[in-house]
Amino acid sequence: MIDPDYVLFARLVSAGSIAAAARELRLSPAMASRRLARLEARLGVRLVQRTTRRLALTPAGEQFHADVAAILAAVEAAEARLTGAAAVPTGLLRVTAPTSFGRLHVAPRLHRFLDAYPSVTLSFDLSDAFVDLVAEGVDVGVRIAGAVQPGLEVHRLGDSRRVLCASPGYLARAGSPARLGDLGSHTLLAAEGQMPWRLVSDTRRTSVDHASRVETNSSELVRELALSGVGIALRSLWDVGEALRDGRLVRVLPEWEGTRDVAIWALHPRAPIVSPAVRAFVAFLHETIDPAAWE
């Protein structure tokens, strides 16, 4: 028999709070809190850091949650095999994706997934902040990065080519840079964490590190500033491909691009048995994301 405190702990992680987990299990928050404390006392380790805003797993809690989640998934799969239940995607699926990418390339096609899997309840968070999938109880994450969080199952969805670009109006006013050194006299645009720009041209590699004209945490704002003629930006083709094709933006120093180590990934916590809903959503992303369409 599965320890009910294990079930409570797993539900607490997925729900994000003691109160939410208690509601799902039809317990009082006080009872759920006492049972969590009892589990920690029995194991002799602190599993959760309790803060004013949310619950965060300790390193021991992260490892224990991975083990408990695997145990519960294995039991569920064993019961399904025994009873002959079909592995139909069902239940709550928590997904996170970068704001602009999710809005432009996932949201317009999301109805296909919802139509195909009516028994799945989807919780979809768009955020440019780093999300720890295990600590936040997220089932699937879309990430655009060169490196990904260890301990996750990784699916490469495609490359994310990045190019230097600006509006024709900005270049008419400020002039087109002829070489990389000219960028120092231009207005550059980047969101937090996007500088320095690491660029490649054939076998040459370099970096550009100048302050952005506008400080922002939003990549979407950077794109809009570039479109409105404020300055030069390093943008992904999935973000500005259409604007480049219709002339609202033009390439700058086209022999240089962002380094090729950045890619688009689908990620989910590693477990011996992956839920049907997670597998279905990763398959949906593979079918949906087409980097060739942005060239």
Tell me what portion of residues adopts beta-strand conformation: 15-25%
Structural class: alpha+beta
Helix proportion range: 25-40%
Shape: elongated
> How far is the first residue's CA from the last residue's CA?
55 Å
Question: What's the layout of helices and strands?
Answer:
Blueprint: H1 4-15, H2 18-25, H3 29-43, E1 48-50, E2 55-57, H4 59-83, E3 91-97, H5 99-106, H6 110-116, E4 120-126, H7 133-136, E5 140-145, E6 152-159, E7 162-166, H8 168-174, E8 188-189, E9 197-201, E10 204-208, H9 219-227, E11 232-236, H10 237-245, E12 250-251, E13 257-258, E14 263-269, H11 276-288
Parallel strand pairs: 3-4, 3-5, 8-11
Antiparallel strand pairs: 1-2, 5-14, 6-14, 7-11, 7-12, 9-10, 9-13
Helix pairs in contact: 1-2, 1-3, 1-4, 2-3
